[in-house]
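Students often ask why we bother encoding 3D structure as a string. The short answer is that it lets us treat folding as translation between two languages. Here is a chain of 519 residues written in the first language.
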Amino acid sequence: MPTLNWIGKDKVINHHQDVPFRILDHRYTHGTEISGNMIIHGDNLDALKALLPQYEGRVKCIYIDPPYNTGNEGWVYNDNVNDPKIRKWLGEVVGKEGEDLSRHDKWLCMMYPRLRLLQRLLAEDGAIFISIDDNEQANLKLICDEIFGSSNYRTTISWQRKYSVSNNYVGIATICEYLLVYAKSAAFLSKLLPRTEESTARYSNPDNDSRGPWKAVDYLNQATTAKRPNLCYDIINPNNGQIIKNRAKAWKYDRTTHEKHVQDNRLWWGIDGQNTTPALKLFLSEVRDGMTPHNWWPYEEVGHTQEATKELAQILTVSDEFDYPKPVRLINRVLQLAADSDAIILDSFAGSGTTAHAVLNMNKADGGNRKFILVETMDYAENITAERVRRVIDGYADKPGTGGGFDYYELGEPLLYEDGNLNEAIPISKIEEYVWYTETKTAHVPTDIPHYLGTKSDTAYFFFYKRDSLTTLDMDFLKTLSNTAARYVIYADVCALSDIDLERFNITFKKIPRDISKL
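And here it is in the second language, the structure alphabet:
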């Protein structure tokens, strides 16, 4: 499989592992309590890592709209990668093609570790949709093949983002953008799209067939008579007795199937019954309840950027801060294909909050319980991203609110310092959640038993930690354990048990903080 190399690749392939794990600092709740919806303000690389303990392998649908690297976006590379070539990029606005010779290297260095974490968060039957344009589409395809696996590439969708082009434009106008679609595994199956009124209107019942509306389907094969002689035979028009012979093309069905069609009155010879070639009646009641999606998304179906700008202007007065927002209908189409009624949907380049808007609309329309997680790095996360979601929930202009709610977070302090010591300002519950995740790779469910984290695969986990005193794993502590398990993993500051006792009780001792794994 072809791979892509660029300046700094060897330093960022595993950079996501060097990013410190930060807790999420809850600031407030808007609307419904315990909604499960989240808006996080902070660097999205740090935020994605902070989501791992609760959400690794649980996100059904990811949509991201990263910088397109056009040279006009003013984005800055700020990842703290320990490499002199990369550190000199810090704080620099990425320039245009021909002006900044490392612009593609910077973009790839920014995207790679984020995609690595997004891949971990994605559920086995989940999919990621990535908006992009011609500037980085080819590069993005290659690194996604590397991270998600080329076998998990599903398609590249062309979205018609413009509905008109100025006659004064010189050259070939670009009216499309793309959505690259990757699955986590073969378990992802795209859903059918809801049948539209237009598609249903193609079915009618001109002969009052008792089986209901139908549409005429071509009876001729694309293959020639020479290629498919087994599908060549005479057909009789029952209305006039005319014998219809094959000309250039064979029939689509063999003789036995054709005779069944005749017996079942499934052939249509036109309104006057005199057509020289029959058609097959395909009944609406026989087609599946939905439409096959395809990779051409015209603006009539999913909206365009001008529609998105008007949508945002109806809600907020800051629509001019977003040059090319995405329309709600575009994200709605993504959700139709990839999000169940109880799916978790993640957008780590949240911008104005269109993804949350689409999720809330869809939940209101069908009574679903989808959850959104938005991450926004910029300072407008509160007064634009969250404010838009608030107004969608509560209602704006003449539109009624969708209901629902969300919790707003800021990125908190690191759980472990660079020297490996625990940050004692972190709530113990957050430390326990982290330790349980590093041991089991599952989300932690708090217990009422002191120091007991839970049991998984016949192993009981304990985190014997006190903020203001040393803890000792000894016989006195063992006597306090009411849980019986085949094996035990016990964290403490000191172990006073002998190796013989540890083996006798099937205990693995882990020293705090030395043996706390780093993500």
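Translate back mentally: DSSP finds 16 helices and 25 strands in the chain. Keep this in mind for the problem set.
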